[in-house]
Specification:
The protein is of the alpha/beta class. The chain contains 13 helices and eight strands. The protein has a single domain, classed as TIM Barrel, CATH 3.20.20. Strand 2, helix 3 and strand 3 form a beta-alpha-beta unit. Helix 4 packs parallel to helix 5.
Length: about 260
Amino acid sequence: MNAFKQAIKAGKTVVGTAGAPNVDSALLADSGFDFLLFDTQHSPWELKQLGPSIQAMRGKKAVPMVRVSANQPDQICFALDGGARGIVVPMVNTAAQAEAVVSACRYYPAGTRSNAGMRGEWGEFKSYREYMDTVNEGLVIAPMIETNQALENLDAIAAVPGVDVLLIGPSDLSIELGVPLDYGCDTYLRGLDKIANTAAKHGIAAGMYFIPPEMDPNFFVQRGFSYFTMPWAGWASAGIQNGLTGIERERKAKRAAKKK
């Protein structure tokens, strides 16, 4: 089992950020994040464009996760063949749909994933069977909970073997609950509590695809959520500005002024 999945299973809070072909994946993957999440549902990027970005993460702390655009075996296979070590699938509303996700992620006999040789950064193996078993065990599988139907079937979805994270799509869930983007209202928070409690009951993690703007991540950690993404640009800018403040940038100009 990889260290990322071990952290999830141990109940530790794991924090990621968005990855994309137009950002430096190697830098982000070595900056302290636990994972980079590449989105192909609501972005212009296609699965087969992600290969170089994922390859750039080899040997880094963060692992690559990919959100596919739909619960389809070919989409999941493309993402895994590209090196993803975790899969996020939108709009998973029933146990049968969750079972389909797990099956598409895993090699026979645990699933139906088509073989294309060793893919991804999983280590060295004595046999091909050992590789397949390692991947089957080590993948992080996160169906997204975004609808009232999913909430009604939540217990059955969480009980599917192989599901690691019940991952909320915050905006879609708020719309389904009749409180569009009102992330602090009682109706929405009751939905969150149901998801967190169900995940805890089944020994899996509850996650937020993103932390809503202006809200404290620890608010969600205290409600039982242990997986989410955070935007990195503001932190990067603050770090650069902090570094620049330590450099005497006006000293030479002051000397020149004195000579005049």
